[in-house]
């Protein structure tokens, strides 16, 4: 993101290793998520109680959608990349705060082309973990345990 935007990037994750990676690749702020939701106040403090202009939810489960919507500022945009739970937001809240919802499956062809240019220029580095196809159960377990940084790739 930092290679494509001048935005202040706040990364939230429950896993410290993921936050360390985010910090090393340009996150301006990292906030460790906790079960009691106290991290929401930390994010609001960083945004001077305005909330985020955009939230990109790569998880979309375990309550992240509700929390993500609560982190938005007025007229903010919520981008759903992960999938797993339903959005349950009263329409009056959407209308009165003028928030937007955008679904993203994998990005467009143009997004991919831009990413490849940035990678060729050395401005972004792809983080992957490769697994043999026969080791798919190990890959799934590593994903569940939060051991994968970036993308897990199964190789036939």
Notable traits:
alpha/beta, Rossmann fold, 6 helices, 156 residues, 2 domains
Description:
The protein has 156 residues and is of the alpha/beta class. It has two domains: 10-125, NAD(P)-binding Rossmann-like Domain (Rossmann fold, 3-Layer(aba) Sandwich); 126-156, no CATH class. The chain has six helices and seven strands; from the N terminus they run βαβαβαβαβαβαβ. It has helices spanning 16-24, 39-46, 64-70, 91-97, 109-120, 136-144; strands at 10-13, 29-32, 52-57, 72-80, 100-103, 128-132, 151-155. A three-stranded parallel beta sheet has the order 3-4-5, with helices on one face. Strands 1-2 form a two-stranded parallel sheet. The protein has a two-stranded parallel sheet with strand order 6-7. Helix 3 links the parallel strand 3 and strand 4.
Question: What's the arrangement of secondary structure elements?
Answer:
Blueprint: E1 10-13, H1 16-24, E2 29-32, H2 39-46, E3 52-57, H3 64-70, E4 72-80, H4 91-97, E5 100-103, H5 109-120, E6 128-132, H6 136-144, E7 151-155
Parallel strand pairs: 1-2, 3-4, 4-5, 6-7
CATH homologous superfamily of the largest domain?
Answer: NAD(P)-binding Rossmann-like Domain
How helix-rich are the residues, as a percent range? 25-40%
Number of helices: 6
Secondary-structure element series: EHEHEHEHEHEHE
Strand adjacency order, main sheet: 3-4-5
Q: Kindly, what is the distance between the CA atoms of the first and last residues, rounded to a whole number of angstroms?
A: 30 Å
Structure at a glance:
This protein has 156 residues and is α/β, with parallel strands linked by helices. The chain is built from 6 helices and 7 strands, in the order E-H-E-H-E-H-E-H-E-H-E-H-E.
